[in-house]
Design a protein that fits this description.
alpha+beta, Neuraminidase, Herpes Virus-1, 36 strands, 3 domains, four-stranded antiparallel β-sheet
Length: about 650
Amino acid sequence: MAEGGRPPELDLHLLECPICLERLQQPKSLPCLHSFCQECLWTYIDKEVSEKRVSDTSFPCPICRRTTSPVNQAEPKEKWAEQFPTNVVIQDLIQLKERSSELPYCKPCQTKGTLTNPAKFWCKMMNIHFCENCKKQHHDILHNDCDILDIGEYDISRSKPEELVPKCDQHEEKILWYCEKHQRLGCHVCMIKYHRQCEQEVVMTAKDYLERLKSGTRLRDMEEMLKKGAEAMKSLVKDFDEQIQTLVQNQEVVLKSITDLRQRIEKELDECQKAVTDELVTKYKEEKENIDMSLRQCDRLMKGMLNTMKSSVKAVEENNPMEVIMMYQRGQAEIESCQDLIKDMREPYTSVSIQHHVPKPGTQGDHMLGNIVIEKQGRRFPVDSGFVSLTLSERQVKEIRKFNVRIPADQDIKIRGIVYLPDNNIVVSDSKNKRLKLFTDEGQYLDQLTVPGDPCDMCLVDNTTVAVAVCGKGVHVVKVEDKKLSLSSVINIDKDLRGITHTDGRFVVSEYEGGVYSLTQDGVTDILHKYDRTCWNLAHDTETEDILVSTESNTNRQVAVSRLSPDKRRTDVMKVGVVRGSAGIDVDREGNIYVCGTRSHNIVQMSGDGTRVRDLLTSTDGVQYPRAVAVNGEKFVVSNVSDTADDRSFIRIFQLC
């Protein structure tokens, strides 16, 4: 008898689930007699079957890998774990184990005030402890047929086998039978219900099967094989432990390798940073020295001219003939030097910026940290009109190239918009074929992009982005990178668009009905001005921030070109005269305006205020119905909408010299 009436110490591994390694909950026994928590078994079955085929009707035991089928394969696999018998022996042992940590006391005695009277019996059905007197007086009167356990004499090691026989969880009968064919234990109801077709020699009592096992060598053979199997598992466990140790060592080696690599990369990055920084400093010094040289040259000449002017005034006041003549001669020389210097500097006059070009992932560059690039862009020459007027009247026009922009898929062609990019590529909008086309200014075809409508005027957004006004289809923003055209975004606007330009992060567009609107990236419009005629093309004057507008103009005295200031004021620049049927329009870095006269068959250049106008090209130069013009530094490109298909297919590039 165990001391204090407690059950003996149990082999704890019998009460643990081999899957979760915790105390068994609702223990379910498989035909191989391995027991698992019902929930753990369900999770295992769900994972095992899901990883194979949903149609599978069996699964391997988690311990011995023996193929196991559920009692009823027709039920969903979520129900399979419930079908296996509950291991009531394990269940009872768990309950006894849970009660072994504290002395059991008689419950009826406690209700009467005697709190520490030891209990001798435990009723599993009621889950109540009784002393011997209370068992007779309270329990046996009403529950004389239930299963009550004498915990005062409970000792598994001395219990008779028949006392430990579990009951079938389906029929509440003792499990006394065994079917050798199906290798299943069961009560007599199970044998009749599920094994009536089995031969008589394979269905016997568990006791008879035990005797059969004892009479042969199967038990000894099993013990021997279990021993060998355990040794094999021991070898595998040892090998896996060694593999884990190897993995741990490998991890440490790899971590060190990663650390070493990072240190090498950091060293290389430091060297690259120094190289790129040195390159930046060198190029900065070179460009700054060039600017400083021009600055000093202009500053010396400016101071000399101011001193000459001051000395000349003084000499005149003092009526000193010799001094006046000398100052006059010196002033003439300085004026000539000033004009020569301006001519030298203005061709071309550029702004210099230092850029850091970061290489794209996967590309090979001169440095891991990219390259330092000097970018120069033409800009307006900041000299007053007294000197600018010389450039408008004196510069000559020279045609440097002409090439065909028709591609094999085109039947005819009609160029209504042009952008001359800073990298010397040209994008044209072909409304006849509903395409944008990309060429080099050498005439090499690069790419095309189809648009859903008639593309009209175009504008430059930045060095690699253009935008086109599409009739009835809004504004299409297009990237120009790696010799390819790709649609970046579309701004929908329900208007019959014709002209477009870009300023300060927004677009300005014009429509066939004469409206000019500011347009945000979100499609919000604001009316700037309403003309009574079609506004064909727009341009942006970066110096004044004005929008230049070319309007339908065929009648004398009609306005051909006007300005819209940021505060929406309109200023007329040119009326019909030299130009008739104004269309394409652009402005150069000096503020000079270029206008296409479609009816007058000419290209004119005029000062920003329209006071000086000259013909750059006329019909004698082969210009017929010019439609679009775009300026790039000292060069400009022109398209025709001539009556002949051949003329319409060519664009021409000219140089100011």
